[in-house]
Amino acid sequence: MIVGLDMGGTHIDAAIIEDGKILKTVKQPTNRNNLFESIRGTLNVLLEDCDKSKIERINLSTTVSTNAIVEDKTSPVGIIIQSGPGLNNKFLACGDKNIFISGYVDHRGKMVKDLNLTEIQDGVKSFKEKNIQHCAVITKFSTRNPSHEIKINDIISKDFSHVTMGHTLSGKLNFPRRVFTSYLNSAVYDTFRDFALYIKRSLEKEGINAPIFILKADGGTMNLDASEKKPVETILSGPAASFMGINAMLNTDKDAVLLDVGGTTTDIFFLVDGVPLFEPLGIKIGPYNTLVRAIYSVSIGLGGDSSIDIEDKNIKIGPKREGVPYAFGGPKPTPTDAMIVLGRIGEGDEKRAYEAMKMLSEQLGLSVEKTAKAVLKTMALIVKNKVDELLQEINSKPVYTIKELLYGKKVEPSLINIIGGPADVLAPILEKEFNLPCYYPQNYDVANAIGAALAKTTTEINMIADTSQQTLSVPELGIYEKISGKYTLENARKRATELLRESAISLGAEKDTIETEIVEENSFNMVRGFYTSGKNIRIKAQIKPGLIQELRGEVND
Amino acid sequence: MIKSKNKLGLVFFPAFDWAISRTHPEREERLLYTQDQIFEEGIGDIEGIKSYNPIIAEEKDIERVHFCVPDVKSRVTESHLISAGGAIRAFQAVMDKEVDKSFALVRPPGHHAQRVVYGDRGFCIVNIEAIMLERIRQQYGPLRIAIIDSDCHHGDGTQDIYWNDRDTLFISFHQDGRTLYPGTGSVDEFGGPGAYGYNINVPLPPGTGEEGFLYTLNNVVMPILDDYKPDIVINSAGQDNHYSDPITNMNFTAQGYAKLNDILDPDIAVLEGGYSIEGALPYINLGIILAMAGLDYSHVKEPDYDKDRLKQPDAITEYIKQECEKIYNLWKEKDDLRLKKYKNMSHVERSRRIYYDTDGILESQTQKFTICKKCSGVDTITSRSDIGYSIFAITIPRDACSDCIDEGHRMYKDVPPATYTNVYLQDKANDVYKSK
């Protein structure tokens, strides 16, 4: 038995799944003042008559870190930044106290200038004066050589409750994002630790000792222990839960558009050969670009409750929602009113829905029914235009080889999968506008809980093997090892796969379910003077998001 | 988040799967560390910097500029079409007002490629800037352009292509040709009869540093640009004047390159040479990007930067001052000089031997420029090379008068058969290119 739970802004959804069958689902309101208690309460209701000893794992998607960041309820953080030559570093000062130190490591990881320890001691003093408990240390190119970060950590860690080192969060190059991600990790450290402790205790009390996993924004999970070290990885996992839910209910191995249409917004995702499309570097939260791996998702202000206006005889829907639909006593006509008028929804006050459409129809010079149809068509068109625009962007992402430029994979969706309240009504209209088949599932309203329940453990590593320096590094795993001058791409590939497996196991993956994948690989001939001095091998490998079990259920199209 | 002052288009195409040969300076690794630096700085996250992929240039784009012998397909690879296409895309983004400025960080380079192409010289087969510019002129109409070539090697290819075109001012400052490939680029190479004075060379002595380059910029380039008033300024942004470059002898710096682009304020920059791939390129390219975007570049410095060690000797400073004064005066007097030089002449001929160092080919050619009162005049090239081929090539300029257009076509028609292996006609006025 697998338990999945997704905490949203308004509701918490939870589900129990066994052998691909949904046994039970519950929906509870979120108590924003007590998120921990909301989760515990929902689990209680979900598990009240089940055999708790049969629970194999519990997958949670939680907003505790996200909320702390968005509501600015994080711990104060002291940041030590070594920015070396490059951009003016002022914009990196995101902490409550920011110390810029000297020293520099270059793009090859060569130590150019060493640390000045006095600067660090002064920094520690100034953090203490501000009563700061959490720190982050980030040095430019620390992914290439983390020795400065490690050295600083060794000096200061005894004085603070937690220190985040930039290189441990991601092996990707992007110093500003590494600074922001490290800051956020330290800022939500206590919040998440408290949550983890609370969950562990409450489940123990209930006599549940199944392993607990936390959902990440990339559609995968990691175990609770790992997430306590990298709580920043738990932000914005909500859309990932929905995404995995759609995927579980409507599995495909093709390029596809995934839509989640709600009351206020529509979320757009893409599948490439059945695999989620990711953000190139990481997700953005508030003002911060991060290196947190995430499923690419774009939210537009268009939903069943979006308010409709007529501008120059054109129907304008959203992006605002000004209340419930007119048929439910709201102030403005909405797409939901159009659906009621067309007899596609059996709720709400039909008379008021008709009135709402009539207001629009008078301005448009159309019949009420035609107006209602035009509203839904407009809704589909807004989605289509946005999807086209996003595809254009996605398909023109920078590439760096002639092969990719000439023959690179283009994302060309051949179907649409849609969930959400108006999914069944919109499906045929979208089908027509996109000229693509459009599918929707039965139990869309618990897709997020199912997605959370079925998400596998995922991870990614970025490896560089430099045979002239005879070093191999995987920053996010803290691996910096010696290699021979004769190391080959084949060796590196093998080592990457090995390390990725080990990492996945430490995050809680089951050995026989791990599917590794080399996403990118390059081997550059390095020449110094007129002679080949070595190879610079670069590998990115991942365990892609997937489902623990196939869901057995019906699909509508 | 940072927002740039100028909207900057960036075509970064390192061609990680292309090299002239495994250990050649123009190899896969060349822009690897530049990419690392750009990625680590988070340039892609700066609001106002927009990335573009190259488009692929077409055969006709090449024919508009070059006579490829025997034809485009035999000489030009996809990598060249993409490099030129990258430059075109960068320029289009500016013309379409998607961005204020653009930087095409593409390879292979092109500024040594002359009008006739038998093979590779100075790592260049086709002139990517000229291909870019002529395509833009066809697409967007006439433009008055200044190309400032800041590569350490004389831009002899660009000079050849725009030798007789007064709508394209070419200024190259470079290490003196008496001390470096390709050997040309002296002050007296001043342009053809239709554009005398619009080809300006500033040979600089080995050892020139920030001071000398910026002096040249402020005292020759900028005053001439003020006089010329171009619609668009292009920086042919070679980076081998750097003190760490392995194949040159200058002392320029990343700060210097950034300042140069700050002062020059080009609309387009296109990467040319530069082979100090670890110690210089990452910092120079970052400096140029920041300067063009209008961002603070004062913290961009090479790890081993040492101001005192790179100080320019006084003798060099003095020499450059005198050269600059001489050259600016020549520019001022160019019209008088032209009248004197070409008085009562109906045509001008020049014969040269051109060595293709990368491919080891020797070419002998004679160019013949007709002097026409109404336009730049039709011109011809007769050329032969030691790999075979004997060609005759006719160019009708963009601004050609109807007499010159007719004359060009007549020449093409009347070439006696079997005199040459290949005959070409470049009718730039009508954008028609023929060969037989």
Set down the secondary structure blueprint.
The complex is a heterodimer of chains A (557) and B (436).
Chain A: E1 2-7, E2 11-18, E3 21-29, H1 35-47, E4 57-61, H2 64-70, E5 77-82, E6 97-100, E7 104-105, E8 111-113, H3 117-129, E9 134-139, H4 147-156, E10 162-165, H5 175-187, H6 189-205, E11 212-215, E12 221-223, H7 224-229, H8 238-249, E13 256-261, E14 266-272, E15 275-276, E16 284-285, E17 288-289, E18 298-300, E19 308-311, E20 314-317, H9 335-341, H10 350-364, H11 368-395, H12 402-407, E21 415-420, H13 423-434, E22 438-441, H14 447-454, E23 459-466, E24 471-474, E25 479-482, H15 489-506, E26 516-528, E27 531-543, E28 555-556
Parallel strand pairs in A: 1-4, 4-11, 5-6, 5-9, 9-10, 13-21, 21-22
Antiparallel strand pairs in A: 1-2, 2-3, 7-8, 11-12, 13-14, 14-15, 14-18, 16-17, 19-20, 22-28, 23-24, 23-27, 24-25, 26-27
Chain B: E1 3-13, H1 32-41, E2 47-51, H2 59-63, E3 67-68, H3 72-75, H4 78-95, E4 101-106, E5 116-117, H5 128-140, E6 145-149, H6 156-161, E7 168-175, E8 199-204, H7 210-228, E9 232-237, H8 254-264, E10 268-271, H9 281-293, H10 314-332, H11 334-342, E11 347-356, E12 361-370, E13 379-385, E14 388-396, H12 402-414, E15 422-427, E16 432-435
Parallel strand pairs in B: 1-2, 1-4, 3-5, 4-10, 6-7, 6-9, 7-8, 9-10, 14-15
Antiparallel strand pairs in B: 11-12, 12-13, 13-14, 15-16
